[in-house]
Amino acid sequence: MLHIELLYILIAILAVCFIGFKKYVYFISLGYGFSISIVGLMLLIIFRNNLDLGYILGSIILICYGLRLSGYLLIRELKSSSYNKKMKNEISDGSHMTIPLKIMLWVSCALLYLFMTSPVIYRFINQSGSDTCYYIGLIITVLGILLEALSDLQKSKAKKKNPNRFVDTGLFKIVRCPNYLGELIIWLGVFVSGITSLSGIGQWIIALIGFIGIIYIMFSGARRLELRQDRTYGKDKDYQTYIKKTPILIPFIPLYSVKKYKWLVG
């Protein structure tokens, strides 16, 4: 059954993601983070008469997560000339994309962000209350946010110190993409937070599509990063040593490369 609350939240996400028509990469960067924030805000507004402490905390976590992520991306784009120069050669400006294709990307991204946050949304809709499973999910989500934020901070500091070297310090000693690992942990937490509230096959399907979708996107991002770093640092002996002993995304799992998996696109 389609809940009117889902429609309201989807409309809000579509409004935020509209920024992608200015620069198509914003659909999956600034639009992504700000969309998650708007979900948290919409939950507070729509369910303002049925909030408990857990609901308020969950909404605030989504808001803070999205603002931090998109804020970081925006500051990096505005202040880092070296990053912009490098990305200009790596990412298309989208001038080749037709309007129908952009509309398809716009709607697809908005639906994905809705599905990713659906475990929390359905807890509000179903009025399941803030149980132990929900709080465990919130704790996992916060740990993921902290990991991602620390990864971004360590990378920024390392690049300021030596902009021409790959980052292999701090959390990057554990995995080569700790920020993506943080992202996976965040959405694992969101999924866990809704497990005891999902009702019916439809809600489970939507929640699983969102969770599996973000897992796919993170591994795709890791593959793109690996290919880009291979082009930049491939002849560096230290880099070759680093990638052979450091897992690309999941700690303690001996998966050191995903570049051969061409189905990881997007």
Structure description:
The chain is mostly helical. The chain has one domain. The protein has helices at residues 4-17, 30-46, 53-79, 81-90, 99-126, 132-161, 178-194, 200-233, 237-245. The longest helix is centred in the C-terminal third of the chain and has 34 residues, at 200-233. The radius of gyration is 19 Å and the shape is globular. The model has no long low-confidence stretch (mean pLDDT 91).
Describe the secondary-structure layout.
Layout: H1 4-17, H2 30-46, H3 53-79, H4 81-90, H5 99-126, H6 132-161, H7 178-194, H8 200-233, H9 237-245
Helix pairs in contact: 1-2, 1-5, 2-3, 2-5, 3-6, 5-7, 5-8, 6-7, 7-8
Brief rundown of the structure:
70% of the residues lie in helices and 0% in strands. The protein is an all-alpha fold and 266 residues long.
Structural class: mainly alpha
Cα distance spanning the termini: 30 Å
| Tally of contiguous helical segments | 9
The portion of residues forming beta strands comes to under 5%
Specify the overall morphology. globular
Low-confidence stretches: none
The percentage helix is 55-70%
How many individual domains?
1
Largest sheet: none
Indicate the mean pLDDT.
91
Order of helices and strands: HHHHHHHHH
Compute the gyration radius: what is it? 19 Å
Q: Can you count the beta strands?
A: 0
